[in-house]
Each structure stands twice: as structure tokens, then as C-alpha cells.
Protein 1
Amino acid sequence: MKAITLISEKEDGSMNKVENITDYLNKKKIDPDKFVRAELIHGKKIEIVNSHDGGTVINGVDGLITTSDCVLGVTVADCLPVYISSKRAVGILHAGWKSLKRGIIEEAIGKITEIGERKEDLEVFIGPSIQSCHFEVKDDLVEKFSDYDNCFENRDDKIYLNLQKVAKEKLNSNGVKNVKISKRCTYCDDRLFSYRRDRKINNMLAVIKPI
């Protein structure tokens, strides 16, 4: 299923406010009655949704998949928006370090193959998110991601984690080879919100729209 991937910017306002979400959808000519959004709990639960879910927020999940004409969305600041498309389905994930550690990538692949899609047909795009240039981590995350030694960078006696690389390695090791990564860093790009940079809770809306 072909799809368009979108992400809002600062000029669209914080997507903590429902009215800003509605305004953004209208700006992008997306019918709010076809839009389904995930609540976000920094876990790995993913819901398969259909057209009757349009206009709702799915509670208790960090990812959505559909084979219908639903438009799917998650809010993000520094976390990874992961857009997935295949022959008959599209999906979107909110993947911060907690969700990545808990297995949201593996869960998504399992869910989408359960509905008959093949891993080799999946196309994944990891959208704007905090990159290793600014994602400094402490010993707790070094330990949590110890299986991904090659995803750490050491600079000036500090340790940085490349979450995009972790996600890509998880995808690759589970049979998904077509993976692209945005070069936009939320911390570096002033047009985007970043919790780590601003220390304020302002979110962007990541959207995948079947076409």
C-alpha cells in the first residue's frame, strides 16, 4: 500500500492540544473522521485498526496498523516515529528507548506478518528524532542496550546512543531490509520540538496516510 508520511512542525503548534491536531489534519486535507491516533504509554502494544475506528484515540498502545483507508498517527518529540508500509497495510510506531527495549519493533513485525504481509515486502522510514549527536546516555542505558555496542559513540568522555541504528538493526535482524532514516535531528532542528533541548512537553504529530 503506497503511503504519504508527514510530521508537524513548531509552526503548527504543540500537538498536546486537540485543536492543533484538528487544524493540522485540515491543513493537510485529512478527514478527521478517518484519523486514528495512538495514546502512547512507552510500551510495545500495537493495535490493528479499521475504518470503524476513525475519529478515535486508541488507548494503551504505542503503535497502529491498518489495511483500510484509515490515516494513522502518533505524537512524538525526541522519540522515533517509525512509518511502515507493505503491499496491503500501513503502520506507525512511537518508538522511544523504552519501547525499543521492550520490543515494539519485533511486535510490529509480528503483527503485520500475522495479517499476511511478508517481511521482505515491508518498507520502513524512521522519521525525525533525536540523533546520536545529542542523545547522551548514562550507565543505565548502556547496560540496557549492551547487545548493541556498535550503536554507542564516545565523545569528550560522554556516551551517546544512536537509537535509529538500534531500530534499524532490530528491523534487519528480523528480516526487514528496506529501511530509510531521516537525517533531521529534533534537537538540532529549531523547526521541530525537542523535549531534551527545551525541557518542555510539546509534541509533534507523525502521520501515515494511505494513497
Protein 2
Amino acid sequence: MVEQTPDSSSLAEVLDRILDKGVVVDAWARVSLVGIEILTIEARVVVASVDTFLHYAEEITKIEQAAIKAAPPA
């Protein structure tokens, strides 16, 4: 017999919470050998509901545009 504890969450509840609040994974890695860059990986993953995304999309765009303007010329 398997008993469930009252504080356990079902998969549907976990997905609902993730889609409601959202999850952001931002990763950056660089591999170099003897000072020579061999590989660079940049990844940004956002999981959210459409409503949550639209709520924050305008602010995210402002932040990205400010970062581009602040970057030194190549």
C-alpha cells in the first residue's frame, strides 16, 4: 500500500506553477586551450505561459537594448 503525503505535488501542479511563475535558465561557457578560444556556448531558456511572457517581454527587450548600447564597439 502506497500512501501519499499531503504536501506532495502532482506533475500537473508542478507544471502549472512553472507556467504561472516561469523558469529561466541562463548558461554561458567558454573553452580555450593555450589562450585560444575553441568553443563558446551561450544559452538562454525561458519557460513560461504566454501571459507571463507578455507581461515581462517589454522589460526584457529594454534590458537587451541597453546591453547592446553599452557594449564597446568591435
Protein 3
Amino acid sequence: MWEFPGGKIEPNESPEQALLRELDEELLCSAEIGEHVETTEHEYDFGIVILTTYYCSLVGAEPRLTEHSEIRWVQATELDQLEWAPADVPAVERVMKDFRV
């Protein structure tokens, strides 16, 4: 399944700081964090995930894979063509709604 980039928030770290750190660690890229999109709480078999999603603008180099098997740029209007992890679905729906013309 597909997921937006991100990861766990470390102690004394804001969600925005965690996202910047995770982008650097996992995709070797930087971004400017923009508007909050959605915060979702989803219960999986292994526990509860709280996912906070932001719009971002890429700064500098394109993302590169370090930990994941695939990366893909997708038009906002075509996000529903991918199979998303359940916790990401509300953010996907919001992004698609925001970019509907």
C-alpha cells in the first residue's frame, strides 16, 4: 500500500520538525512545510496511528529512495488510483477535494 512520507515524532519535536527530519532521513530531500491538510487517527492490528499530513514544497534535490521499494509523483486528481494505507485515506480525500477544479 502507498503512504505519504513521514514517521514517528521524537521527544521535543513538533510534527513539522519530525516531517522535515523524516524527509531528510528517508528520501534525502528538503521541503518547506505548508498548510495542515488532515490529522487522522486509525487503529491497526499493531496499535493506533495518528497521522498528521501537510502540504509541502520541495526545496532542492529530488527525493531518492533509501528505505522504500518505490517512490512516485502523482497528480492530486489521480491519487485515488493508488491503494493507500487506511490511515492515509482521509488525507488523500482532502487533497483530492482541495485540488478539484
Protein 4
Amino acid sequence: MSFELRRGETLAIVGESGSGKSVSIKSIMGILPSNAVVESGSIEYDGMDLTKVSEEQFHKLRGHRIGLIFQDPLSALNPIMKIGKQITEVRRLSGYGKKEARARALELMEAVGIPDPEKRFDQYPFQFSGGMRQRIVIAIALAGDPEILICDEPTTALDVTVQARILELINRIKQERGLSVIFITHDLGVVANVADRVNMMYAGKIVETGTSEEIFLEPAHPYTWALLSSMPDLQTHERLVAIPGTPPNMIDPPKGDAFAARNRYAMKIDFEKEPPIFKLSDTHDAATWLLHPNAPAVEIPPILRERIERMKGEMGNRG
């Protein structure tokens, strides 16, 4: 896979569980298990190849140049350490004194919406709700003043109202601090609200990439069609389209297009040869044989076509 992150943008990486999203992020952060290695290629950041830096260099990068928000806040927090200390620890590692680190931690707690930070500074994680714990994790991720914020399914374990507040918070902080954000999710509703560009990922590969508008209004890959068709909304009354089967085991990858066995539009060549990347515009690419000049004409599912027309109408009304 190959992609770039531009300064000040939010890039969403979308796909089902097992598509390789979290493994990609762990590769960037250098936190894969010791028996897992990047076999080839490079991960370039600020003149460094992150596949070749030492653990000491990575220690300086994590939390200080690149922040990470985990899916489950409980797994990211030390249950027997007060939350104030967990935030100040990151600040102290950046070379700040105890008094300065405390002041910054209180400032961050207020910035992420934790009420009465002076009082709650000395409380433990179990004394906070799930949404508040996720706010603490965001404060910890921001304590080192990172340039890049990686959000690995940060709202999956939260209810809808709390989820909306967390997304709004991440968006606001991104704007205020000029952060670049990588947002990992399987929820296309979240993507529509936060992403500038989208990478659709399947079986360890990016199968379609484009601006958020291109992915939602001009999808080109059958996998993107299937995901968009399976997304519930209030206006759709028809039965949602389910994607049969599960992603393949990449220890023994299938021949040809990895999505072929689940693709209702698959042709013989899909089972024999991996499709190349076809360019649809300067910002929109997709890897599917359906875009080959000799491929039969195939229309997107009716349920998706109706949604696209409805979204275009809503965008026109807002304009």
C-alpha cells in the first residue's frame, strides 16, 4: 500500500475488521510485535525512514511528534495512576518542569471539555465515564504538541451522542492547532463528517482513494459500493445490501483480486489477475477490472444510486 498525508488534512482509512487498518497504523508507530517486520518499502516522515529508526528515536516521536488515540480508552490508561499524572508524564518527557507540566495538563483538560480540572486532576480513570476517559486519552495525545494525530476507531465504544461530541472535539482541535489527522474507522457515517480524503482498504491494500466527495458521490470500486449500500440511514426503506463472506486470510492470500469471491460483479479475470490502479481524476483512483476499457458496463446498485442522488440534492440545497 502507498499513501501520503498532507499538512492540515484529515485522511480517513476505511475498511472492515481484518482489512489491515490497525496493522498499518502500528507500522507507522513502530509498535508491531517483535516478530513482525516491514519487509520492504519505507515510511517517510520529516526526512526520516521510520522503518529504520532506533527504538530511542521512536520513543521521542511517539506522543511528541505523532500522537495516537486508541479505540478503547481503558486500554490506553493506567488504572492505578491519577489522570493528571498520566497527562503530565508526557509533558515531562518533552523536557518541561513539574510546575509547567501541571499547568499545561490543566489547560489541556479544560480544552478537551473535562469540567473542574483542578478537582479532577487527582482522580483515577474509573471515576470517569467512557466519554470522559476518551477525552483524557485525547489530552494525553496532545500533551506532547504533536504534528500528526492518529485516531484508531476513537468513537467505536461510545454511544451516539458522546460519539458526536468526541468527533466535534477532534475537529475543533485539528483546526485550532493545524494538525494533520489519520482517522481509522469502519463507520462511513463518521467519515462523511470528518474526512477530507478517503482510502478504502481491503485485504491489506488500498482499493480506492479519493476526496470525501468523490468517494460518496462517485464511488468506483465494487467494495466501496457494497460498504455504502450496507450503511443504514433514515431515508432508506429498502432492505440493506449485505456483503457475503469475510475478508480473506492474508497469510495465504487468494490469487487475483482479493475481493473477487465476495464481488457480485466479479469476472473471470478477477480470479486470475490482480487489477491495476485506474486513474479517474487527479485525486481519484480505484483498482478494479470494471474500469478497464474492455470491461462490460455495470451500473451501481439501485439503493446506492438513490442515495447518491439524494446526497447531491441535499448538497445543492445547502449551496
